[in-house]
Design goal:
Number of domains: 2
CATH superfamily of the largest domain: Metal-dependent hydrolases
Structural class: alpha/beta
Number of strands: 9
Number of helices: 16
Largest sheet: 6 strands, parallel
Strand content: 5-15%
Shape: globular
Order of helices and strands: HHEHEHEHEHEHEHEHEHHHHHEHH
CATH topology of the largest domain: TIM Barrel
CATH class of the largest domain: Alpha Beta
Amino acid sequence: MKCHFPLFLVALCIACSKPKATDDNELLAKAKEIHEKVITLDTHCDINVKNFTDSINYSQRLENQVNLPKMEEGGLDVAWFIVYTGQDSLNEKGYKKAYENAMAKFEAIHRLVSDYAPDQIELALNSDDVRRIHKSGKKVAMIGIENGYPIGTDISNVKKFYDLGGRYMSLSHNGHSQLSDSNTGEKDSIWLHNGLSDLGRKVVAEMNKYGMLIDLSHPSKKANLEMLELSKAPVIASHSSARALCNHSRNLDDELLQAIKKNGGVVQTVAFKSYLNTEKYESRNEEIKEIEKVVMDSLGTKWLPRNEIRALPAEERNSYITTYIEMNRIVKEKAKSRPELPPGVDVSDFVDHIDYMVKFIGIDHVGISSDFDGGGGIQGWQDASETFNVTLELVNRGYTEDQITKLWSGNLLRALDEAQQVAQQLQTEE
């Protein structure tokens, strides 16, 4: 069962949207009814293992963007928790460290569902699990892998990660991996593989063999086109938007969108400010950045740009992120009292990307993601507690219940079903 929405959220929804229905109450009632019925699924929620302990865990309403109380409050049913590893050196030392990081995150997610909150959330491995768990009233956890770097050069790790619950994986992140070039190569046109490496091609086949979805969100365009050509199963982009609306290398251009449609895949539109509306983001961000620097200084920490945060050693990075989350909370409060600030990227900008892709490649190939706790969050959908606002905007724009069902989870689960069916066939043919 989903939550009953707080009055302040309802008021916010009316204020921030432009209802097409003549009666605001009628629009809200329709949106709430649909939101209660559909399975809402977010394909990208990053985690910090410090929030997966006996004393601090997702059964509590923490300051982070996704936890069980916030999922309940906003009616978010399914969260794909992310086994993320930043890019480092392409050598055995780097692979070993990355593997250990990945295993720590797998173990953290398993502790949540087995030890800390088994009565509230359960791990799903397929679409039947999702529907069964949802019907029971629990929240659903799924696992995605961001960056294939932890595989190292041992292809058997694909099966190992699958057995641990990993159901999608990208072959690179922000930096070229041993498997694939990254979209970040666009900045200087320096490539390592000119697409995929030989090992990367083998990993694609191995992922098909076991039913693990291939994620196109971070690799380079050339690598993505090669994966689309090689894959025998539908692929996804777990957290990307439309490049035609926002020219960022993390977004997908029209050629890639058409190729994903032909493949039967799904693009999970991402609520990441700088991937949605560059002009609005940069205009507001310049002023917000100055407020952030003052607040970080008051917290005894120097403000750092994202590339320098990523470059920090793991322990320092985690400590910085903890402080950053507190800073972000303070800045949000301060921004509320600064009406003169430029408008922020919001749910309307987010749904503009959904609209574009639905019109361009069809309703069956578009989904929803947040990138919460990894940089995601927009006005109106700042954390899981505000998930309803997305449904409200979709209803406001005329999407039907069936269409909203597809966007929130139907398309993604269909792709997962098909990938697992392909895997069964491939294993039978061996």
